[in-house]
Amino acid sequence: MLKRRIIPCLDVKDGRVVKGIEFVALRDIGDPVEIAKYYDASGADELVFLDITASTERRQTMLDVVSAVARKVFIPLTVGGGIRSLEDISSLLKAGADKVSLNTLAVESPDLIKRAAERFGSQCIVIAIDVKFEDDDYFVYTYGGKNRTELRAVDWAKQVAALGAGELLVTSMNQDGKQSGYDLRILDLLRDAVDIPIIASGGAGNANHVVDALEKVDAALLASILHDRKTTVEEVKHVCSEHNLPMRFVTTQTD
């Protein structure tokens, strides 16, 4: 059985890790390189690095920061924000990213999903879907949660899976930063709609929230509760394991 994954998320603005609530009210958390090293050592399965203002500022992701993080971690690194072309994807992969996360570009140029999957492999292409429940449905947002599209999340998930996306990163804007639990309804809807792996994001407040999500999907993204040291990756994994969810634990080698 495939192991479930615990993935810390580094939202980066102006070269610093930040965290907000519902994509606003950002507060400084610290240096991305040092934080990435900490999570790598603490048993995280992967890391997600999101340059959260790159799209709205219409600039490329900070390659120097990505490169600095990649040199210090030994787990898969997914990078997103400000990607505008296949060349940008290539630059990020060369800088040390293992995967790229596409949101705004994917919505505005869906054909690039297929082209990127063909050129780099589906395993490298993560489609980030920022969703908000309003008007009795889940709608997709772009530009760091600032622009509502008329795309419905389930329809969009089916489309990107058909185009060759290897994974979905689904963030509930309604739950983001509130620590009141993931939006389990959208996870159910998307799990029924697509066969590719799904990462749940937005709302984790304790390990039991993570259990709830991982009983439905493949991985859970965590930010606030880890950044604020309310819990650790290892503690979350132990709780998940107690609920019979398969987890990867770091083992210490002895001579």
UniProtKB/TrEMBL annotation:
Enzyme Commission code(s) on record: 4.3.2.10
Region forming the signal peptide: none
Any one cellular-component term (Gene Ontology): cytoplasm
Biological processes annotated in GO: L-histidine biosynthetic process
Keyword annotations: Amino-acid biosynthesis, Cytoplasm, Histidine biosynthesis, Lyase
Active site: D11, D130
Top-tier EC class: lyase
Superkingdom, taxonomy of origin: Bacteria
Pfam families xrefs: His_biosynth
UniProt keyword annotation of Amino-acid biosynthesis present: yes
Catalytic activity, as annotated: 5-[(5-phospho-1-deoxy-D-ribulos-1-ylimino)methylamino]-1-(5-phospho-beta-D-ribosyl)imidazole-4-carboxamide + L-glutamine = D-erythro-1-(imidazol-4-yl)glycerol 3-phosphate + 5-amino-1-(5-phospho-beta-D-ribosyl)imidazole-4-carboxamide + L-glutamate + H(+)
Described purpose of this protein according to its UniProt entry: IGPS catalyzes the conversion of PRFAR and glutamine to IGP, AICAR and glutamate. The HisF subunit catalyzes the cyclization activity that produces IGP and AICAR from PRFAR using the ammonia provided by the HisH subunit.
Entry protein name: Imidazole glycerol phosphate synthase subunit HisF
Source species: Exiguobacterium chiriqhucha RW-2
